[in-house]
UniProtKB/TrEMBL annotation:
The lineage of its organism: Bacteria, Pseudomonadati, Bacteroidota, Flavobacteriia, Flavobacteriales. Gene3D superfamilies: Jelly Rolls. InterPro entries: cNMP-bd_dom (IPR000595), cNMP-bd_dom_sf (IPR018490), RmlC-like_jellyroll (IPR014710). It comes from Chryseobacterium formosus. This is Cyclic nucleotide-binding domain-containing protein. It comes from the Bacteria. Transmembrane segments: none annotated. Residues 4-109 form the Cyclic nucleotide-binding domain.
Length: 180
């Protein structure tokens, strides 16, 4: 989980391991709810999560991001600015995460510049939008089919449709025309 950010020594990895905690969550458990200020980042060891906000006009949750095993999950805006989150992060299934609190991360940064590099890379590359807003619905679906097929295998079509900002009927039509 650290290797993609820097070449950490064994001592730095041990230090990191002393500053994290493991959490097991049931399906629908909330890591951070809309309105809370995020104080931790989470690495998904097992399971999957989604971020959403409630749209009172449409009377439904709007999916803003989907997260799978071996990914970091957090709300960048809330974490960096220490402002209330605009989305809720919820477990889609029984899951296990590793939690690194902001306080622990700051302690690690003081000890090693590699953790500063880790922090900068993690924060500077949030998945704000994985696709171009000008893509057609078919292009959006084909993009995730090609780059993140696990999403389609993990989440129901209604959630994929919300994530892609298209109607469920549209995604059904697209899938009928896609050959696997």
């Amino acid at each position: 989980m650290l290797a993609e950010f820097a070449d950490f020594s064994d001592a730095e990895v041990q230090l990191f391991n002393k500053n994290i905690s493991k959490r097991c969550l049931d399906k629908n458990a909330v890591l951070c709810k809309e309105g809370d200020v995020l104080k931790s980042i989470f690495f998904i060891v097992k399971g999957s999560f989604y971020q959403s906000y409630y749209n009172p006009i449409r009377e439904e949750d709007i999916i803003t991001d989907l997260h799978l095993e071996n990914e970091w999950v957090f709300n960048p805006e809330s974490l960096v600015n220490q402002k209330p989150a605009k989305t809720t992060i919820k477990a889609f299934e029984s899951s296990e995460v590793i939690e690194l609190t902001l306080e622990s991360l700051h302690k690690l940064i003081v000890i090693s510049n590699k953790f500063l590099q880790f922090n900068k890379l993690l924060i500077s590359n949030p998945k704000l939008s994985f696709y171009d807003e000008n893509m057609t619905p078919t292009e959006k679906y084909n993009y995730i089919l090609k780059t993140r097929p696990q999403l389609i295998q993990t989440f129901p079509l209604s959630m994929i449709a919300s994530y892609l900002k298209i109607r469920p009927e549209t995604i059904s039509r697209i899938r009928a025309n896609v050959s696997f």
